[in-house]
Write a sequence for this structure.
């Protein structure tokens, strides 16, 4: 009996580990790849800011265009920060960044009901380092397809 349970558990683990062409938040891999190639999924922020730079706005315009052409796809906007500041401060700043992206996309025709936001603050750095080169890569907004 124990062998059967162990075999069933191992089978479930094996199946759970299999790749299924689903992206990080659920969108198909080919859709996520097309979105990344055509629009880009990341924008970057200045230190202690949630204002959208001209370059960020250009990326978000491409995102809005792509997302309007694919109305069945939903997304999660992730707000990220660099390591400086308290956890609480960075969670709030990441939230402002995510909402800035959501507001821009909604203003440019993407249905806000398709957009969720989450702040990771400084908890998920893209680059490890204690310098401006690393910090500038971690101050970001990421549009992840669902």
């Amino acid at each position: 009996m124990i062998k059967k349970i162990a075999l069933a558990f191992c089978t479930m683990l094996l199946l759970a580990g299999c790749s299924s062409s689903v992206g990080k938040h659920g969108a198909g891999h080919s859709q996520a790849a097309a979105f990344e190639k055509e629009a880009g999924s990341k924008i970057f922020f200045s230190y202690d800011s949630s204002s959208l730079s001209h370059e960020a706005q250009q990326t978000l315009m491409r995102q809005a265009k792509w997302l309007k052409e694919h109305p069945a796809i939903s997304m999660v906007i992730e707000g990220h920060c660099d390591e400086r500041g308290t956890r609480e401060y960075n969670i709030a700043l990441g939230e402002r960044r995510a909402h800035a992206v959501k507001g821009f996309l909604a203003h440019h025709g993407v249905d806000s009901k398709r957009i969720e936001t989450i702040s990771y603050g400084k908890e998920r750095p893209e680059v490890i380092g204690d310098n401006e080169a690393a910090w500038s890569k971690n101050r970001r907004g990421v549009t992840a397809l669902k």
Observations:
- The first strand starts at residue 42 and ends at 44.
- The chain has one domain: 21-145.
- The two ends are 40 Å apart (CA to CA).
- Helices lie at 2-17, 29-38, 54-69, 87-107, 132-138.
